[in-house]
Write a sequence for this structure.
């Protein structure tokens, strides 16, 4: 036990020393930690009341001032407070959708790589099918049919974004299973469950961490797009705020703060996840550099 | 990443032509299977998932139970699921996509009216994005790490992280509405002015309406072409033939243009078509923002209403065309690139 712990600590130390040399990755990580902490502590200071249309305290579509540092929306609500509260929905959906996508992708990817013959053929057929479907269009249809609650948005994003992970994991599984220690494990009587969970999964885990990070970024963009196109129920997120800005003609009436602020939040968080994910990828697997 | 699969499984021995035909047949078979899966999945998604379509149709309208029953009968929802399925498949393979609830007109007619403007916008944007991406990618990949490489890759990565709709909103705010001292230059919505002239001025009018939607799409889409082209060119730089060309005394520029780029071009162009699904998603968003009267906007309206027949019809059309494009790209790539054939 203690030997394993020491080894893990050393491995983590090596990983951290290497990650630290990627300045962009560290910057991304800092932004992420700050964003997540802010979202977590939000209920200590404000509540869902800031998104209530009748409780707006400022003037309608007022530019940034001392009272409302980032201006107000069409009902006089403070953009700053709404951004803060909305970050909870945006980040939650981003994380959970990425998680769902990773779980589906990993299970199917390992299954396709580990089992040969018809199981692999069927799983790959399904993966290729999902891969070719236009994901945003499919997610829009799913969200529209299912009704647009937070859970259905997560499901719609997760279900349409797993295929690339499945392919990645399948390739990695094939590579891992070609190694001699798998043969040894089989000779000692290791079954499918033992081999996939004890040997394959730990080997693909670093790759999964990096690709989850990148997946969160794209899930946040997809969430905001779905919300903007109006399939999300009215829970405040950065996407629904931009929807509001479009519906109330903020672009044509010069209310730049209403458009700029939520959008910049999305871009900052997405960039942070992307930088962090790319740094992780380089550190954890120098041979693998994604083209995109 | 969808790189064309090496065709090792599809080809065993024998003359290359034969192999290509077999490969094409296998791919077309796969595409037909995918299309069949789309039709089946669409049927069940629109009927089995929670939410009664009639209830959804009646949203916001007062309808008696009798009217609801009548509506159910009209939509064939009172038949058994098996009967409905056979009916649906039969209709779909005959290109009958039902009647839109909102417009009270056949979905096929609505699609027919809109498809032209979508092809115009998406086609123009795609040509521009591909040329820009390939040109910059080739230059960036020829000297990786150079200033040109850093700047162009950096800009494209930033644009890549920006949500399409937000970029559209920004352009709308700056160039259509005008901000501060900048006057609005371009129209905010639609494909033509209300008092559109005819003849050549009409074309100019349409072009003016197309600038902002097109710019939005190009900005978001070209990054991936740049990155793919860049990495293909980087692969070519180390090849022996480049060294040979250099030893023969060809100018650097010429080696790039005449030798490296053509070789790097093929995988890139294939990938362009492989990822057409992404472009389609962008087109829906852009058309929604700029009220461009195309298929994407039709789909968006169907979702907003919601008009399930229209949504189903446009979804089927979009998905099937994406599958066909992918297959075509796959087969053409195989036909043109001997490196994949012999792999």
């Amino acid at each position: 036990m203690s030997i394993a712990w020491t080894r893990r600590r050393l491995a983590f130390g090596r990983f951290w020393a290497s990650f630290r040399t990627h300045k962009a990755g560290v910057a991304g990580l800092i932004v992420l930690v700050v964003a997540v902490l802010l979202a977590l502590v939000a209920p200590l200071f404000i509540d869902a009341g800031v998104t209530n249309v009748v409780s707006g305290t400022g003037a309608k579509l007022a530019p940034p001032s001392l009272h409302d540092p980032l201006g107000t929306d069409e009902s006089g609500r403070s953009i700053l407070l709404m951004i803060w509260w909305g970050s909870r929905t945006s980040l939650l959906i981003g994380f959970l959708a990425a998680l769902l996508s990773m779980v589906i992708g990993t299970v199917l990817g390992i299954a396709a790589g580990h089992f040969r013959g018809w199981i692999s053929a069927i799983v790959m057929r399904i993966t290729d099918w999902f891969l070719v479907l236009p994901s945003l269009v499919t997610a829009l249809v799913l969200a529209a049919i299912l009704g647009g609650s937070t859970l259905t948005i997560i499901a719609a994003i997760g279900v349409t974004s797993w295929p690339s992970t499945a392919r990645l994991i399948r390739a990695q599984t094939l590579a891992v299973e070609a190694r001699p220690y798998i043969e040894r494990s089989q000779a000692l009587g290791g079954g499918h469950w033992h081999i996939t969970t004890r040997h394959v999964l730990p080997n693909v885990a670093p790759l999964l961490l990096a690709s989850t990070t990148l997946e969160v970024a794209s899930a946040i963009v997809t969430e905001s797009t779905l919300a903007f196109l109006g399939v999300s129920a009215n829970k405040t997120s950065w996407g629904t705020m931009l929807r509001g800005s479009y519906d109330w003609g903020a672009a044509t009436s010069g209310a730049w703060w209403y458009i700029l602020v939520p959008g910049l939040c999305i871009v900052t968080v997405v960039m942070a996840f992307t930088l962090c994910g790319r740094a992780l990828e380089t550190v954890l697997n120098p041979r693998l550099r994604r083209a995109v | 990443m969808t790189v064309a699969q090496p065709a090792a499984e599809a080809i065993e021995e024998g003359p290359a032509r034969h192999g290509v035909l077999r490969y094409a047949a296998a791919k077309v078979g796969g595409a037909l299977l995918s299309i069949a899966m789309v039709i089946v999945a669409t049927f069940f998604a629109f009927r089995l998932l929670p939410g009664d379509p009639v209830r959804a149709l009646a949203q916001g309208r007062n309808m008696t139970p009798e009217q609801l029953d009548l509506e159910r009968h009209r939509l064939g929802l009172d038949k058994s699921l098996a009967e409905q399925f056979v009916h649906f498949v039969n209709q779909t393979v005959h290109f009958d996509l039902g009647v839109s609830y909102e417009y009270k007109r056949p979905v096929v007619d609505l699609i027919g009216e809109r498809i032209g403007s979508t092809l115009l916008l998406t086609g123009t944007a795609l040509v521009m994005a591909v040329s820009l991406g390939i040109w910059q990618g080739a230059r960036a990949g020829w000297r990786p790490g150079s200033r040109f490489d850093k700047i162009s890759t950096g800009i494209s990565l930033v644009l890549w992280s920006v949500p399409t709709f937000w970029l559209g909103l920004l352009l709308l705010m700056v160039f259509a509405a005008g901000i501060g001292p900048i006057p609005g230059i371009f129209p905010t919505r639609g494909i033509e002015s209300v008092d559109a002239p005819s003849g050549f001025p009409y074309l100019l009018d349409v072009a003016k309406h197309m600038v902002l939607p097109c710019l939005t799409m190009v900005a978001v889409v070209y990054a991936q072409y740049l990155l793919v082209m860049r990495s293909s060119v980087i692969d070519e730089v180390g090849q022996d033939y480049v060294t040979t060309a250099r030893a023969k005394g060809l100018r650097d520029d010429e080696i790039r243009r005449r030798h490296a780029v053509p070789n790097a071009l093929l995988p890139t162009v294939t990938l362009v078509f492989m990822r057409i699904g992404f472009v389609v998603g962008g087109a829906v968003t852009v058309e929604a923002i700029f009220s461009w009267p195309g298929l994407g906007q039709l789909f968006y309206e169907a979702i907003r209403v919601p008009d399930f027949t229209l949504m189903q019809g446009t979804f089927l059309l979009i998905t099937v065309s994406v599958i066909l494009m992918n297959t075509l790209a796959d087969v053409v790539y195989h036909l043109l690139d001997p490196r994949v054939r012999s792999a």
